[in-house]
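A reminder before we start the practical. When you read a complex entry, don't treat the lines as separate problems. The point of joint prediction is that each chain is placed relative to the others, so the output describes one connected object in space. Small molecules and nucleic acid strands, if listed, are placed in the same frame. In the example below there are two entries. Take a minute to note the order of the lines before looking further.
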Amino acid sequence: GNSVTQMEGPVTLSEEAFLTINCTYTATGYPSLFWYVQYPGEGLQLLLKATKADDKGSNKGFEATYRKETTSFHLEKGSVQVSDSAVYFCALSFGRGSARQLTFGSGTQLTVLP
Amino acid sequence: DAGVTQSPTHLIKTRGQQVTLRCSPKSGHDTVSWYQQALGQGPQFIFQYYEEEERQRGNFPDRFSGHQFPNYSSELNVNALLLGDSALYLCASSRTPTRRTGELFFGEGSRLTVL
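Here is the predicted structure of the whole assembly.
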């Protein structure tokens, strides 16, 4: 079946440090890939997505590139802020639009210290 | 514009009881999906409702059932509760499933504790 493996946390960084959260997937075919973020006390929010190989998703300074050859979708940010502290989930899906079922990784807790 | 709202936010039940969780989708959305998020895990898809019918279902037993009302709101029912059903239950809404660019909007969840 489909699965997503994320870098285990928690991850603690100082403000302005570089962030990488690794994500690899196992799937039959070519899924769409997503990063969701869950801030404390809030619901999951879509951070970025990529729907085909070599696509780069980006938002709020975060980037991730869909790498078919390594089945990866690593999340990066050049300079993190305290406000980026949250839990980050990598996910995949098949299907069109909102008919998709999302398969999530286990999440990575990020804490950014001032 | 209200987003996805869920109730109750927290509840405690005992084994064998039944529970009903409620979800109101974001304005303009007609599709509701439910996910279960165990502590320290990612959300797992339970099922999706559109046009008052269950359209897709994940790997959950029949103890988990749902309903969608004409106003697009939805309920998740869990019968014969087990300790392992303790989790955060997330509702996500979206527009018509066939829209190519549909995005899921999640509520803050209902945290269920089974004792």
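Discuss with your neighbour: Chain B has a mean pLDDT of 92. What might explain this?
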